[in-house]
Design goal:
By secondary structure, the protein is α+β, with helices and mostly antiparallel strands. The chain has four helices and four strands, in the order αβαβαβαβ. Strands 1-4-2-3 form a four-stranded mixed beta sheet, sandwiched between helices. α2 runs parallel beside α3. The longest helix is centred in the middle third of the chain and has 14 residues. The N terminus is likely disordered.
Protein backbone atom coordinates (compact mmCIF):
# COMPACT_ATOMS: atom_id res chain seq x y z
CA UNK A 1 0.00 0.00 0.00
CA UNK A 2 3.02 2.30 -0.32
CA UNK A 3 1.81 3.45 -3.74
CA UNK A 4 -0.19 6.36 -2.41
CA UNK A 5 1.71 7.11 0.79
CA UNK A 6 5.32 8.22 0.95
CA UNK A 7 5.97 9.56 -2.53
CA UNK A 8 2.46 10.92 -2.97
CA UNK A 9 1.92 14.57 -2.24
CA UNK A 10 -1.74 15.42 -2.86
CA UNK A 11 -0.92 18.77 -4.41
CA UNK A 12 -0.56 18.04 -8.14
CA UNK A 13 -4.08 16.77 -8.90
CA UNK A 14 -6.64 17.19 -6.17
CA UNK A 15 -5.26 20.28 -4.43
CA UNK A 16 -5.18 22.35 -7.63
CA UNK A 17 -8.20 21.22 -9.63
CA UNK A 18 -10.39 19.27 -7.21
CA UNK A 19 -12.38 20.05 -4.11
CA UNK A 20 -11.51 18.77 -0.67
CA UNK A 21 -12.33 19.42 2.96
CA UNK A 22 -9.84 19.31 5.80
CA UNK A 23 -10.73 18.29 9.32
CA UNK A 24 -12.79 15.79 11.24
CA UNK A 25 -16.01 17.79 11.52
CA UNK A 26 -16.14 18.81 7.85
CA UNK A 27 -15.33 15.22 6.86
CA UNK A 28 -18.24 13.86 8.92
CA UNK A 29 -20.57 16.54 7.52
CA UNK A 30 -19.69 15.77 3.92
CA UNK A 31 -20.18 12.02 4.47
CA UNK A 32 -23.61 12.73 5.98
CA UNK A 33 -24.53 14.94 3.01
CA UNK A 34 -23.37 12.27 0.56
CA UNK A 35 -20.76 14.52 -1.05
CA UNK A 36 -17.67 12.56 0.01
CA UNK A 37 -15.85 10.45 -2.59
CA UNK A 38 -12.79 9.40 -0.59
CA UNK A 39 -11.64 9.86 3.00
CA UNK A 40 -7.98 9.92 4.03
CA UNK A 41 -7.13 9.46 7.71
CA UNK A 42 -3.71 10.07 9.30
CA UNK A 43 -2.18 7.16 11.21
CA UNK A 44 -2.18 8.98 14.55
CA UNK A 45 -5.83 10.05 14.49
CA UNK A 46 -7.40 9.00 17.81
CA UNK A 47 -8.94 5.51 17.67
CA UNK A 48 -12.48 6.61 18.55
CA UNK A 49 -12.45 9.32 15.92
CA UNK A 50 -10.97 6.95 13.33
CA UNK A 51 -13.58 4.28 14.00
CA UNK A 52 -16.39 6.84 13.87
CA UNK A 53 -15.24 8.04 10.44
CA UNK A 54 -14.89 4.42 9.27
CA UNK A 55 -18.40 3.65 10.50
CA UNK A 56 -19.92 6.63 8.67
CA UNK A 57 -17.99 5.62 5.53
CA UNK A 58 -19.28 2.07 5.76
CA UNK A 59 -22.88 3.33 5.96
CA UNK A 60 -22.37 5.77 3.08
CA UNK A 61 -20.25 3.29 1.04
CA UNK A 62 -17.35 5.74 0.79
CA UNK A 63 -13.73 4.61 0.44
CA UNK A 64 -11.34 5.12 3.36
CA UNK A 65 -7.58 5.31 3.01
CA UNK A 66 -5.29 5.09 6.02
CA UNK A 67 -2.39 7.41 5.29
CA UNK A 68 0.86 5.90 6.55
CA UNK A 69 2.19 9.21 7.87
CA UNK A 70 1.16 11.23 10.89
CA UNK A 71 -1.21 14.21 10.83
CA UNK A 72 1.84 16.47 10.38
CA UNK A 73 2.85 14.50 7.25
CA UNK A 74 -0.70 14.58 5.89
CA UNK A 75 -0.82 18.35 6.38
CA UNK A 76 2.47 18.71 4.52
CA UNK A 77 1.21 16.45 1.71
CA UNK A 78 -1.75 18.82 1.34
CA UNK A 79 0.64 21.76 1.10
CA UNK A 80 -0.63 23.19 4.39
CA UNK A 81 1.40 24.40 7.33
CA UNK A 82 -0.81 22.78 9.94
CA UNK A 83 -1.70 19.26 11.02
CA UNK A 84 -4.47 17.40 9.21
CA UNK A 85 -6.05 14.37 10.91
CA UNK A 86 -8.78 13.70 8.36
CA UNK A 87 -9.22 14.79 4.76
CA UNK A 88 -12.28 14.39 2.58
CA UNK A 89 -12.12 14.55 -1.22
CA UNK A 90 -15.46 15.69 -2.64
CA UNK A 91 -14.30 16.24 -6.22
CA UNK A 92 -11.12 14.63 -7.56
CA UNK A 93 -10.77 17.21 -10.38
CA UNK A 94 -8.11 16.24 -12.94
CA UNK A 95 -6.64 13.68 -10.56
CA UNK A 96 -7.34 9.97 -10.93
CA UNK A 97 -6.82 9.41 -7.20
CA UNK A 98 -10.14 7.61 -6.68
CA UNK A 99 -9.54 5.20 -9.57
CA UNK A 100 -5.96 4.45 -8.51
CA UNK A 101 -6.79 3.76 -4.86
CA UNK A 102 -5.76 0.29 -3.73
CA UNK A 103 -8.92 -1.56 -2.79
CA UNK A 104 -8.84 -2.57 0.85
Amino acid sequence: SSGINAEWPLRPGVMKSGKFLIGYRSTIKSIRQGKAKLIIIANNTPALRKSEIEYYCMLAKVGVHHYSGSNIDLGTACGKYFRVGALCITDPGDSDIIRTMPSE
